[in-house]
Amino acid sequence: MKRRNPFLPHGSRLLNLGAILSGLLFLLYVLAAAWGAAGAAEILAPLFGLLSLYVLVSAAAERRRDPTAASLNLILGQGALVLLACLCVLVMLKERGWI
């Protein structure tokens, strides 16, 4: 049996909660960007990216430990959210002139 990492959430319930929070942060980012709240969007983009990446790593680690613990749908969905998060951060950096 593989050892669990104490810093990553375990169990489908926590992973699903993390995925839901990632999706809600993405929705808040899109709403903030659409309403022209650039300050809020600049704060939400990296926060959304870090949370999405954290949940993806947690789901992958849980799936590696026990293949039935995290579904492939969760991992693929989180992977898509991580890609969206990277694009959001790149847009934010481009708007600030850092890229």
Account of the protein in words:
The chain is mainly alpha-helical. 77% of the residues lie in helices and 0% in strands. It has helices at residues 12-34, 38-65, 72-96. The mean pLDDT is 87.
List keywords for this structure.
single chain; 99 residues; mainly alpha; 77% helix
Brief synopsis:
This protein is mostly helical and 99 residues long.
Low-confidence stretches: none
Please write the string of helix (H) and strand (E) elements: HHH
Mean pLDDT: 87
Structural class per helix/strand content? mainly alpha
- Distance between the amino and carboxyl termini: 45 Å
* CA gyration radius, whole angstroms: 15 Å
Largest sheet: none
Strand content: under 5%
How many individual β-strands? 0
Q: Based on CA inertia axes, which overall geometry fits?
A: elongated
**With helices defined by DSSP (H or I, 4 residues minimum), what is the helix count?**
3
* Helix percentage range: over 70%
Topology, pairings included?
Blueprint: H1 12-34, H2 38-65, H3 72-96
Helix pairs in contact: 1-2, 1-3, 2-3
